[in-house]
Amino acid sequence: MSATAGLILERRRVRRRLAFWRIIAIVAVVVAIIALIPRVAGPISGEHLARIRIDGIIFDDPLRGAALRRLAESPRVKSAPLKAEPSYTTRPDAAALSAERALIEDAYAWFKGLVSERRGLSGAALDEVSEGRVFTGRQAVDPGLIDAAGDEDTARDWLAANRDLAADLEGVDHDWNELSLPWPANLLEQSLRGIMF
User: Fold this and answer.
1) pLDDT (tens digit, 9 = 90+) per residue, 33-64?
2) b/e map 156-182, b = 16+ CB within 10 Å
3) Are 99 and 66 found together in one domain?
4) pLDDT by residue (tens digit) across 118-154?
5) Which domain holds residue 119?
6) Which residues contact 71 (CB under 8 A, 6 or more apart)?
7) What domain count does the chain have?
8) Which of 103, 69, 61 is nearest to 89 (CA)?
9) Which of 8, 43, 22 is nearest to 180 (CA)?
């Protein structure tokens, strides 16, 4: 009789565990559905003018450079000579530099092709703007890299005249640190953001 009572108790425990895992699975499915639902409401749907603020500058970091140099001197084992090359953790050999050069030249040719096609530049005019330098907004107008330089009102007027968009489009400020999904899906977004950025 005790064996039968033990079996009954064990079945009840298994049923409770199964119910617990079913609830966890349902919650996970609901969170996934909420995360995948397109955001059709709110200020970022439809046509709008995005205001993006860029904080800070990009510069060389000597502390990271020293750490990367130390990593570059540590030995590594690879399945092929160019596997994971170019790498910031190793000193490149001639083959890796050649492969990296081929990547850069291909990307450069692709980008020059886009600029030529979309901005109507070719020959000496294209060579002048593709030397790798940085242009201010005012400097980019003359060679044709941009159509106009100005403030938000200038942008609205240009969009109304050239792209058939309403001049009174709602402006939306995007804060890249703000979570955009509703709870509980924003927990997933926050954890992914912590991994990726």
Assistant:
1) 776 665 544 445 567 666 766 555 555 667 77
2) bebbeeeeeeeeeeeeeeeeeeeeebe
3) yes
4) 999 999 999 999 888 899 989 999 999 998 898 888 8
5) 40-179
6) 88, 89, 90
7) 2
8) 69
9) 43
